[in-house]
Design goal:
The protein is α+β, with helices and mostly antiparallel strands and 87 residues long. It has helices spanning 2-12, 64-80; strands at 14-17, 20-23, 48-52, 55-59.
Length: 87
């Protein structure tokens, strides 16, 4: 997924954000980690929530449901990019 995104940005030479074209000068991809776990650093806070009966419930990262909501969200995004489940 990231490789396709990077290739598209490289071919276009950059991207436009709020009317300003950001030119891409250099691009590098790190290899995927091997093994079962990877450490991911978020550049912005991650929020996990669920809405029930008109109420929005926010979850603390220490709550078990936080991880399952995050995983479900990432799976939906991967499917939107065309990746089948389980890949």
């Amino acid at each position: 997924m990231l490789s396709s995104l990077a290739r598209g940005l490289w071919e276009r030479g950059g991207m436009e954000v709020h009317g300003l074209f950001l030119r891409l000068l250099e691009l590098g991809l790190e290899p995927l980690p091997t093994g079962e776990k990877a450490v991911v650093e978020a550049l912005a806070p991650i929020t996990a929530y669920r809405t029930e009966a008109g109420k929005t419930l926010y979850f603390n990262p220490l709550n078990r449901e936080f991880a399952s909501l995050l995983e479900a969200n990432l799976n939906r995004k991967a499917e939107a990019w065309g990746f089948p489940r389980g890949v």
